[in-house]
Amino acid sequence: MHIRAPAILLSARAHGETGVIARLLTHDHGLLAAYVAGGRGRQLRPVVIPGNLVEADIRSRAESQLPFARLELTESRGPWLNEPLPAAAIGWVCALAASVLPERHAYPALHSALSALLDAICHAPSARGWTGGMIGFERLLLRELGYGGEGMGGDDGWAATMAEFDRQALLIERYLLADRRGDVMAARAMLRDRLARIAD
């Protein structure tokens, strides 16, 4: 296997002394896991941050072997990780996608939606500008994985948005994270707590 493609870095788990196993979402190849040598070193640590956009060069000698990846940073989300709401939102959407998407199945609509959502989180003037997009991304994820996904009601107020956010949490827990909800849903609970501080 040899794939060179732009990717969204979803997660990076420590492996060995200095390496990481990165989970990358590509447009044409879906979710790919790969070993990144030196991923915890000084040079690559700023690259392997969830939400970052990278150019990935992924290679393996056999289908059964974990591929190796070289990553080049194309856009960093680092500047927004010092802001509590954007950091929580980026952490949640990346953890969700990394946890529920099957490997090597292309979901081009999800890739495009996640890329647009990350841009909105980083550039909208407030959470009101991206919370609806996050709900839409979660709904698209449910739909793409075969669990439906109903639209929001007609009320556009913040209270209605938060009610929809809460309702969707139940669907995500029940269908997408039934076996592993604790760790991943904790990221959503933290985001919900921060969004609740916004006045209507």
Approximately what portion of the residues adopt beta-strand conformation?
15-25%
Number of domains: 2
Query: Helix- and strand-based class?
Result: alpha+beta
* Strand order across the largest sheet: 3-2-1-4-5
Q: What separation lies between the terminal Cα atoms?
A: 51 Å
Global mean pLDDT: 91
- Specify the overall morphology: globular
State the helix count: 5
Q: Helicity range of the residues? A: 40-55%
Number of beta strands: 5
Strand and helix order? EEEEEHHHHH
Major sheet summary line: 5 strands, antiparallel
In the predicted model, the low-confidence regions spanning at least 5 consecutive residues are: none
Radius of gyration (CA) equals 17 Å
Summary of the model, kept short:
The chain is α+β, with helices and mostly antiparallel strands. 40% of the residues lie in helices and 22% in strands.
Map the helices and strands:
Blueprint: E1 2-15, E2 19-26, E3 30-36, E4 53-59, E5 68-75, H1 84-100, H2 108-123, H3 131-144, H4 158-176, H5 181-195
Antiparallel strand pairs: 1-2, 1-4, 2-3, 4-5
Describe the structure.
- The protein is built from five helices and five strands.
- By secondary structure, it is of the alpha+beta class.
- The chain has two domains: 2-76, Nucleic acid-binding proteins (OB fold (Dihydrolipoamide Acetyltransferase, E2P), Beta Barrel), CATH 2.40.50.140; 79-195.
- A hairpin with a 3-residue loop joins strand 2 (19-26) and strand 3 (30-36).
- The mean pLDDT is 91.
